[in-house]
Amino acid sequence: AAAAAAAAAAAPAAASATMGSDPTESHGNLFPIFVLSLIQFFLMPVTLFMLGSWLMECFGGGDKEKSANVAAEVIAAVAAPTDASSEWGRAAAAHAARNKPTVMRRVQALFKGGNLVIVIFWALSAILVAYIALTTEELTKVFDPYAVLKVPIGADAATIKKAYRTLSLQYHPDKNPDPAATAFFTDSIAPAYKALTDDTARANYEKYGHPDGKQAVKLGIALPSWMFGKGGTAPIILICLVGFGVLLPLGFAVCAILRMDQYGGNNNILKQTQYNFYGMLRQKPVMPLSRVAETLSVAAEYMALPYKRDQEEPMRKLMVLMRNEFDTKDQKLSKRYPSIVKAHMLLLAQASRKTQEVDPMLQADLKHVISLVPRLSQEALAIALTPVNNLGFCYMRPVLSFLEFSQCLTQAVAPSVRKASAGGDKPMQGGADAMASLLQLPHVDEKTAVLLSRKKCRSLGDLVAIKGGAARVDALKTAGMSDGQAADVEARLRFVPRAEVFAASIETEGEDSVVEFDVVTCTVTLKLSRGAAAAEDPSVAAAAAAAA
User: pLDDT at residue 1 above 80?
Assistant: First the structure.
């Protein structure tokens, strides 16, 4: 009796597997497989591409040793300074500490940007694989009357009848009151006996695999039944499809059109900024270097900077600090929009190495102002290069001023130090412009630059031209530097480029002379080396490069 009860309990599961829905119907349990296939369709080729690129970099050969040497030199150059007593030394030490390679930082760099996206999708794929392995149900079996009655295929009528009677004694409602046994008898045993005792039904099963004959193919989709089944969330799915598939792209399109109406150029600059730059350049076609910061400050992006009342005192101190970098007698300056004045002073503070002295209340605005400088400078330069006559000419002085101010910001050299000569056509030889090149070096301030000039090192070129590292160290120590500071300067001099010109020619093709408006070709043969270390290396000095 216990065995019969156990068989009756297991019978409904077998009945469900035997008489369940047709295998061609849609199954929600296939949805994870569908999602996994979709992810792997994109993830696998991207992963193989990234892995192949990494392997080519590791085992590419050729320039591998050269790249390793260059990387070693760069790492050595950006390492912690030997002497951190000066302002540059403290800043370099802080930078080296922030960028010191550690295991945690390497892990963070590995799981960053595109790598992080790849890792996330591989983790999601692993979760889907585990979910599919643990929850996937067995495939629905086709109704097999021979298996239900436990008789061999092709059994005769007597064998089928005997098997039916045996199962009836076990599962018939009159013999077994268990509802599960009754269901198994009604849904499986009785239909199986009927299919095998009816000649037509048996012939249909043996020919088509179904007692009722050939069945139509049913197709489905690998989506959960709660999405589109009865009592599901089909309306919600429809709303989401309309919202994310139609309305959201339409909203992005509207925003893009509105943005295109406000922005222009290749640098994603506000059109109002372009108008302001154009007006400033046309008012002052011969723009000196000292006016570039004023021109950049009229950008509409800077006008949007908030100017709070509690910033008035920090701004007053900043203007006092920068009094040597702008015209204090300019009456128009006090009448300008406060945010423009703030941007003007912050640009000068960056170029003059005075960012540490900027009030903490203005530090956030300083970062924002400096972050916009590259795009604004490119746009202003493009406007300055716009032809002003039918011959295609433009004003040269504004172009040179914008380029020089970009150097001031990059090198943190004050514009007042780089002032040109009175004519504005050539920089002063051995004067302010030469001092600007020295101020790019570590630990070198204006006082040190003046002391170096007294030792006939009026420019960076003069310092590089000194033969022998010991002689340069002596010159630097004479200017007040310590041994550690001189070592830092020597480390950076390895990356200073030096060009030695062998020959140069300017000619017009097919003509013996050059006249106005001719298109000319300039050919220069030169040797390019890197600073003092390259100049002293015979192997490097012997390698000449030609540039046209």
Answer: no
Contact 438, 452 (CB under 8 A): yes
DSSP letter for each residue of 499-546 = EEEEEEEEE-TT-SS--TT---EEEEEEEEEEHHHHHH-HHHHT--EE
- Quick check: pTM over 0.85? no
Question: What is the per-residue pLDDT across 423-450, written as a single tens digit (0 to 9) for each?
Answer: 344 444 444 567 788 888 888 888 888 8
Q: Using CA atoms of 516, 519, 524, 530 in order, give the dihedral in degrees to the nearest 10.
A: 100
Query: Do residues 270 and 262 touch, judged by C-beta distance below 8 A?
Result: yes
Q: Are 28 and 223 in contact (CB under 8 A)?
A: yes
Provide long-range contacts, Cβ within 8 A and 24+ apart, for 270-278: 270/299, 270/300, 270/301, 272/300, 273/298, 273/299, 273/300, 273/301, 273/376, 273/379, 274/379, 274/383, 276/300, 277/379, 277/380, 277/383, 278/383
Give the pLDDT confidence score for residue 281 in this predicted structure.
Answer: 86
- Contact, 387 vs 394, CB < 8 A? yes
Sign of CA dihedral 107, 112, 116, 118: negative
Identify which of 294, 288, 276, 303 has the alpha carbon closest to the alpha carbon of residue 383: 276
Tokens representing residue 121 in the block: 């999708």
Coil, helix or strand at residue 270: strand
Length of the chain: 548
Residues whose CB falls within 8 Å of the CB of residue 14, separated by 6 or more in sequence, listed in order = 184, 188
> Residue 488: which of 71, 75, 77 has the closest Cα?
77
More confident residue, 171 or 218: 171
Angle ∠(239,243,248) on CA atoms, nearest 5: 175
Taking each continuous run of H as one helix and of E as one strand, the counts in the chain are 28, 5
List all residues 6 or more positions away from 215 whose beta carbon is below 8 Å from its beta carbon: 22, 208
Contact 442, 81 (CB under 8 A): yes
**Per-residue model confidence as pLDDT tens digits over 169-196:** 888 888 888 888 888 888 888 888 888 8
Q: What is the DSSP letter of 247?
A: I
Structure tokens at 98: 């922030």
Pairing mode, strands 545-547 and 521-530: antiparallel
